[in-house]
Design brief:
single chain; signal; alpha+beta
Length: about 270
């Protein structure tokens, strides 16, 4: 577990990035001491993964599709009807510990939702890297960095702003308070992207009846058939087309295949 963030130098630390070893269907969970997921990712294809962030005492945030976690160049969230491409004026990965960089994030929506919505918008950001850390969890050697993202305007509630930790070994970003709770790592296989979400929700839901419903559904043959259909349609489409700016919810059949696997549709009450 990370108990604090403090700058230090890594003299020698050899670690093969787990992201390079992932295959479609693999998931990674970062867990707290109670084995509750803090954050996780599911590999959909070579250039796209689903990420989920937990919330203290509640259900997790909506899944987000990314090409990479640390300042992604492709990002999409179905329930927000958000699908964009990012281009940065400078590379945040070049910031050393103790350094900072002002960058402009140019978003190009893929495609615009409304006729009056500008296809491009820019956001000025200041990124500061405060520490670089190495620690062990579940036998894995993890390397990461603590960083802060600030906006140009006071009171800005953009979710990109705040204190974060990037677990570089697994390419997962989570809020700094959650990162301090990392106690274990779990790596496994899920039947599809929504099965990964179901697994995540099942282990974080504060609602016993909802949790039981998800657990029971995931054991049925019908559920497994729906997961296979989703993986063959939705996940396969994203794996091939996400880098080019396309998302599955533009197609009715793929949207319905995804909705059929939603835990909130399977267990509505």
């Amino acid at each position: 577990m990370i108990t604090r963030f403090a700058p230090f130098a890594l003299i020698a630390f050899i670690c093969t990035p787990a992201a390079a070893q992932e295959a479609p269907g693999d998931y990674i969970l970062l867990l707290d001491e109670q084995s509750r997921p803090l954050a996780g990712s599911y590999r959909v294809g070579p250039d796209v993964k689903m990420t989920i962030e937990g919330r203290e005492g509640g259900l997790p945030r909506n899944p987000v599709y990314l090409d990479r976690a640390f300042f992604p160049t492709r990002e999409a969230e179905m329930l927000a009807f958000y699908n964009t491409r990012h281009a940065y004026s400078s590379d945040p990965a070049a910031i050393d510990v103790g350094g900072e960089m002002r960058i402009v994030d140019k978003e190009t929506l893929q495609p615009p939702l409304f006729k009056d919505q500008k296809p491009e918008r820019e956001k000025a950001l200041k990124v500061k890297v405060s520490a670089r850390l190495a620690f062990e969890a579940s036998g894995y050697k993890l390397v990461g960095k603590a960083y802060t993202v600030e906006g140009a305007e006071l009171g800005d509630e953009d979710r990109r702003l705040g204190d974060f930790f990037h677990v570089e070994t697994f390419d997962i970003v989570l809020p700094a308070p959650a990162a301090r709770k990392i106690a274990a790592v779990e790596i496994g296989k899920a039947l599809s992207s929504s099965d990964f979400e179901a697994l995540f929700v099942e282990r974080t839901s504060p609602i016993p009846d909802f949790t039981k419903c998800i657990s029971d559904k995931r054991k049925t043959a019908d559920y497994k058939a729906l997961a296979e259909k989703q993986k063959a349609s939705v996940d396969a489409f994203l794996a091939k087309n996400f880098p080019e700016g396309q998302v599955f919810w533009a197609d009715t059949a793929r949207y319905e295949a995804n909705f059929a696997m939603s835990v909130y549709a399977l267990c509505p009450n």
